[in-house]
Amino acid sequence: MRKTVILVSALLLPVGSMAASYTIDPTHTYPNFTIDHLGFSTLHGRFGKTTGKLELDQAKGTGSVEIVIDAASIDTGFKKRDDHLRSPDFFNAVEFPEITFKSTKVTFQGKGATVVGDLTIMGVTKSVSLAVASINCGVHPFNKKQVCGFDATAQLKRSDFGMKYGLPAVGDIVNLAIEVEAVKD
Amino acid sequence: MQELLTNPAVQAAVAPFTVALVAALLLRRFLPGGIGLAVIGGFFIAVVLTTGVTLQPLTATRKIIVCGLVLPFILLLLDFITVMPQSAGLRRVLRTLPGLLLAAAALWIIWPVVQRQEGMAIWVMAAPVMLYAAVITYGAAALGRLQKQAFSAQAASALMLAMGTGATTLIAASALYSQLAFAVSAATGAVIIAGLLGRVEKPARLGMLTVYAAAVPVTLFAAAATVYAQLPVLVLLSLALVPLFAWSLLFKPLKLIKSSQRWLALVASSLWTSIPVLPAVWLAWQAAGPVSF
Fold first, then answer.
1. Beta carbons of B266 and B194 less than 8 angstroms apart
2. Maximum distance among all Cα pairs of chain B, rounded to whole angstroms
3. Alpha carbons B289 and A81: distance in angstroms, whole number
4. Given an 8 Å threshold on Cβ–Cβ distance, is A83 in contact with B60?
5. How many Cα neighbours within 13 Å face the side chain of A71?
6. If pLDDT is split at 50, 70 and 90, which confidence band does A11 have?
7. Residue B31 gets which letter from DSSP?
8. Is the CB of residue B101 less than 8 Å from the CB of residue B74?
9. Which residues fall within 8 angstroms of residue B262, CB to CB, at 6 or more apart?
10. What pTM, to 2 d.p., does this model score?
């Protein structure tokens, strides 16, 4: 989902007057999340494997994005907990190996944007809105490729996707923060 | 109230036990042959409190729930057809159907993953799951058909299978699977208690519906946990011995356990039948490593 936001943001970037295609850089694109843990603290985690594409037509102010996150790549820094998060109690990663986001509407606001799209987790699809602050595009200083990057945030309820285990002790609200970089094709 | 209903102990034990006990006491008086409905009722209330009642999307967990609520009736119908007058050959064929049906159900449940496999990997994944479902169902059905003379063996087998599934899935697989398996255990325990509350001279009976209602969901939860979570396949092998140990209670010298009081016989039978559960728990523990959340 975060990658999707990133892709959408990239679409919003004023890169040129024609539609441009970008491919997500998986080594600089990570959906991070935080969630309340039993009321004691805030657990931080992220997904390590994300792929995706985005299309951006700067002249028309349109764009689209499709993101695929490997659900099994969840990482909270403790294997046993990660195994539990992959189990049917949470992401059910064996049965539903992919989390996907497909944009339905992108609205540019200055340097930022709002990306609305369909987020699918465990076979349940809900509309989610991603807030993209600043979209930054330019030439990569080392490989000289055209790159766009941005940070996106969103908030969702895991119970909306049927992920009800541990409620209400383990929080329902999930805060997303997605770092995205995409390379022009 | 909401806090109470979200407590895992209430969801997995208190609620299903209470519902099943009330239902079993009523059914024992008005519909003795349907006392197994109490197990299904206990399982259903646990489902309501944990996952809620919805079929969309039809996940593996929901498939198991559907099977747990529906298949016991189909198996009972198959059993009824089997005991009708017919040739011995046809009867033998009919007696394989419950096991085949559960094996097919198990394959349906793991199908989303199986279809992604290729070659031998398909059978490596599917064969143990289907075999386990068939063996447990065959064993439960065989014990169930013994009716009143095997009450302790039937009860011990149903209880230990459910408790073993609950314990192993809690350690190495899914807390949700565990909760629902323990709920079946609690509901089955309630039906057993209701059966034992009758007059001593009147033999206690579990009935085929109870046997199937207890066996179907926990069998499928354990089988699915080897695919969708990290329950070792060897756990299935160990749990598959539970009905066999229950069977052994019917033979000398273990048959002596039955000669004592009904409650004592049940406790002794349960202890004996729990023997194969112990290595299953150990295997799950080894696979899980240190537990911390």
1. no
2. 58
3. 11
4. no
5. 23
6. very low
7. -
8. yes
9. B151, B152, B196, B200, B204
10. 0.88
pLDDT band per the 50, 70, 90 thresholds, residue A3? low
Angstroms from B190 CA to nearest CA on chain A = 26
Instruction: Write the ipTM.
Output: 0.82
B105 contacts: CB under 8 Å, gap ≥ 6: B63, B67, B71, B133, B220
Helix (H) or strand (E) holding A136: strand A136-139
Residue A168: Cβ-neighbour burial (10 angstroms; 0-12, 13-18, 19+):
middle
Q: Is the pLDDT of residue B131 over 90?
A: yes
Lowest-pLDDT range of A47-51, A83-87, B81-85, B132-136:
B81-85
Chain A residue with the nearest C-alpha to that of B58: A123
CB A174 within 8 A of CB A47: no
- Structure tokens that stand for A9 in this block: 């943001």
Distance between CA atoms of residues B168 and B230, nearest Å? 10
A 10 A CB-CB count for A12 gives: 30
The answer, for B18 touching chain A at a CB cutoff of 8 Å, is no
User: Residue B230 contacts by C-beta under 8 Å, 6 or more apart in sequence?
Assistant: A83, A87, B172, B173, B287, B288
User: Exposed e or buried b for every residue in A104-117, given b needs 16+ CB within 10 A?
Assistant: eebebeeebbbbeb
Question: Do the Cβ atoms of A88 and B291 come within 8 Å?
Answer: no
**Burial zone of B67 (CB within 10 Å; 0-12 exposed, 13-18 middle, 19+ buried):** buried
